[in-house]
Amino acid sequence: MQIMMETLALAESEMDALIKSYYADTTAQEGIPPLQMVWSFYRSLEDQGRLVIISARESAELIGFAMYMIMPHPQHGGLEHAMCNTLAVATKHRGKGVGTLLVESAEIYLRTTKAAVMLHGFRAIYDVKPLFPKLGFTLTEQIYIKVL
After folding, report:
1. In-domain check, residue 32
2. Burial (Cβ within 10 Å: 0-12, 13-18, ≥19) of residue 80
3. Which residues pair with 82 in a beta bridge?
4. Which of 28, 68, 78, 79 has its CA 20 to 30 Å from the CA of residue 111?
């Protein structure tokens, strides 16, 4: 398996296919509006140097990716944070450590940026423990959703 930095220009169509498959094959879509990635938004962030994509490939096939937005924190002036917007692993590769490698690799890279903290959400609908505490993350808040 190869872990690497990617750009949307090279990987957007593969990322789109993987995330759609991931949502179709898992419970990720439960309780939220239908998935419709707005890739132009991510391209804009990438143009500003505010998007980091770490991918996992096996024989050139995209099997997972983590996408982070590096942004100023709105409540803590001067603090840049890297928020994971998407962490997706192809269904047949889940449970094999791919997600862990993506997050660990992202952390190594993000330490070289202006980001002072790394944020990860976790969908509570999964019947598994999140990997983040094992990687040194601390639970600081929970988010609730209500579809209107």
Report:
1. yes
2. middle
3. 70, 118
4. 28
Range of the domain at 59: 2-135
Q: How many domains does the chain divide into?
A: 1
Asked if 128 contacts 27 with a C-beta cutoff of 8 angstroms, the reply is no
pTM of the model: 0.88
Say if 54 falls within a structural domain: yes
Write the CATH number for 63.
3.40.630.30
List per-residue pLDDT tens for the chain, 148 residues long: 999 999 998 999 999 999 988 888 777 677 777 788 999 999 999 999 999 999 999 999 999 999 999 999 888 889 999 999 999 999 899 889 999 999 999 999 999 999 999 998 876 666 667 788 898 888 888 777 776 8
